[in-house]
Amino acid sequence: MSKPIALVAILAAATAATGCSSMSRAIGASRSAPDEFRVMTHAPLTLPPDYNLRPPRPGEARPGESDPSTEARAALFGDNVGQSASQGERAFVTAAGAATADDNIRDQIDYESQGVVRRNEGFVDRLLAFGGSGAAASPLDPRTEEQRLADDESIRRAT
Q1: Which of 38-52, 62-76, 83-97, 103-117 has the highest mean pLDDT?
Q2: CA triple 97-102-107, angle to 5 deg
Q3: What angle do CA 59, 36, 28 make, to 5 degrees?
Q4: CA-to-CA distance for 42 and 66, rounded, in angstroms?
Q5: How far apart (Å, rounded) are the C-alpha atoms in residues 27 and 22?
Q6: Is 62:44 a contact under the CB 8 Å cutoff?
Q7: Is residue 147 scored above 80 in pLDDT?
């Protein structure tokens, strides 16, 4: 009789434990981070030097706020690259010849490798030997294949 009671107690405890996270979420005890794509950012408020407020003009952008496309370009490509670099880092970049690098190197590499197709043979492809061993398969000769099948049939009948 004690085994069923213990089993019911274990099942009840397991059920209660599974409800803990959803219950804390339901009562607001757990916090979730805001969606970064839905958060609107505005430039920080600054005090003007003369404290005389200028009336806003309809259609004019907020002062001190940049264009979203400019911010996206800065985030992707970086507009202050190397501004906070130390003297040693700048000397290293200069010694590496970064200023004399060819701007069209990507086009040159693409042009040179147009006919080259590189395919990395995957582990599963090697394991299952997809594509065969690389040897070209020869077409079947109908006469010899018919003879081979007849021989196989005669051997099968004999046994």
Answers
A1: 83-97
A2: 145
A3: 120
A4: 9
A5: 9
A6: no
A7: yes
